[in-house]
Every structure is written in C-alpha cells, then in structure tokens.
Amino acid sequence: MPVPSADVPRLDRLRVGSAPDSWGVWFPEDDQQVPWERFLDEVSEAGYEWIELGPYGYLPTDPAVLHREIAKRDLKVSAGTIFTSMHRGPENWDATWQHVSEVATLTKAMDAKHLVVIPSFWRDDKTAELIEPSELTTEQWKHLTGGMERLAKQVRDEFGLDIVVHPHADTHIDTEEHVERFLDGTDSSLVNLCLDTGHYAYCGGDSVKLIKTYGERIGYLHLKQVDPDILADVQTNGTPFGPAVKQGVMCEPPLGVPALPPVLEAAQALDVDLFAIVEQDMYPCPPTQPYPIAERTRRFLRSCGA
C-alpha cells in the first residue's frame, strides 16, 4: 500500500465514509448479506466515520435504536438512498413520495443532509429482462427533469434535505451524453449530482472532466473503480449490471479505473465540503470478503491525502 509523502495533497474538504453496498448489501433483507450489526462493527473498525443508510430497512428504522447503535461505534450518517421512476410521469408521484417520505424521515432523524436518488433500471439487474427502452422520449425527459425538480423542492421544504441524483449503469442517467442532458435540463439550485466514479467509468464517462466542467453541480461523491478487462468483456457480451457485478467488474482501488487521486484533487479544488463515500458493488459476496477490502481502501485513501 502506498505510503503518504510530503507531496501528497491534504484533501481536507472531503469527508470519507463507506456504505452497506461495500459489504455486499443491496436489499433490506437477504440471506446472502451480512447482518447489520456486523456491517456497523466492521465499517467502524476499518476506519470510517461516516456511513449511508443503504436500502431502507437494512439498518434499524427506529431512530432511537439507530442513534444508539451508531453512536457506540463513533459513526455518523451522511445520507439516505431512494429509488425513483420520474420519467414515467406524474401518475407515479404518490407511490414515489410514500417511499421518499419513509427514507427522508429517518435520514433527517439521523441528522444527515442528503438523499441519494437512483433512477429506475431499464432492464432487470438479475434476469437481464428488458423492462423498457434504454432511451427516453422527449416527453419522458421532460417528466424526468421536471419530476426531479418537484421532488427536490418538496424534500427540501418538508425535510430540509438536498437530493443528489446518482448516474447509474442500466438506468436512463448513465452516459456522459445523458448526464449532461439531465444537468442542462434541471435547475442547479434544486438538483445536483452524486457522482459515482465507478458507474460513470462503467458507462464511458470521465469523472475529472465532469467535475471540472460541471463543478457547481457536484454535490456528493461515491468512490468506486472498474476493472477495465472485465468491463471490456461485459460490453462485448451486453452483460447487465447485476451479473457484471458478480463477475467482479467493480474492484478495489487502486486496481481499476478511474485513477482516484486526480478525481479527489479535482473535487478538493471545488473548495466545498463534499462527502466521498466508498462503494464497491459486490453482491453477493462471502461474509469475510468486505472487511479486508474496506480496510485496505481506507488506507489507500489516506495515502492520497483523504
């Protein structure tokens, strides 16, 4: 593992954390996932201070219980996560808001300030079944951008939280073209990005370029890398995201792309406080696999100045 030197920048605007995703957690309940107590124990032992809530219901949803459990491990919550299908139009609003309200209530109770918003998938991440077209119509783009602005305003008004939209593989906000179209179509005072460096690389994007071009729209970071050899195979075979993760397409730093030091330095140059939450998609995984990776990743990030 690299050793910090005097030349390493001090990335003091970045608040490094991790998430249940780095422990192979994708669902509220699943026999292939580690118990939530083990996640909290190990994320703290690995040297992280901040966590995300993960899928709603994985961690305790009683604020008093969750406060007690994270406090005794010296942890704090940076964000909750929600899933949306805004492109499907206003008729989808009520179901969306019911889900958002649950997550936002717990997120606010944990003194966090962000909701990470993940768009719905256009194909099933397990079966590869096509759910809907991968490209939106002009009308659907209007629903998507307008719906996100409505969501951001209501979340801010009712809960005092900011949404950060997460470009994600196999969703309609994925490639550089789609991300830029989304940013150009939304109000920067309401809607900003959670830039996931792994997903953006998976979809062909350049994280450093995005940060330098749309810096004022970067509200949150997920730190992740992609194995370029496995990604090439995934692209050749049209493998959906879920099976690609099982192949190991997301790998621990510094073994993949993008190189994280330039990303971290570009984020630091924005001169705003940003969460930089480590996520390494690896569902499902052996229960003994996540902790050593998490510990090595934390040491690597320290060697980068974070």
UniProtKB/TrEMBL annotation:
InterPro entries: IolE/XylAMocC-like, Xyl_isomerase-like_sf, Xyl_isomerase-like_TIM-brl. GO terms for molecular function: isomerase activity. The lineage of its organism: Bacteria, Bacillati, Actinomycetota, Actinomycetes, Kitasatosporales. It comes from the Bacteria. Keywords: Isomerase. This is Sugar phosphate isomerase/epimerase family protein. SUPFAM superfamilies: Xylose isomerase-like. Residues 40-303 form the Xylose isomerase-like TIM barrel domain. Gene3D superfamilies: Divalent-metal-dependent TIM barrel enzymes. It comes from Streptomyces ochraceiscleroticus.
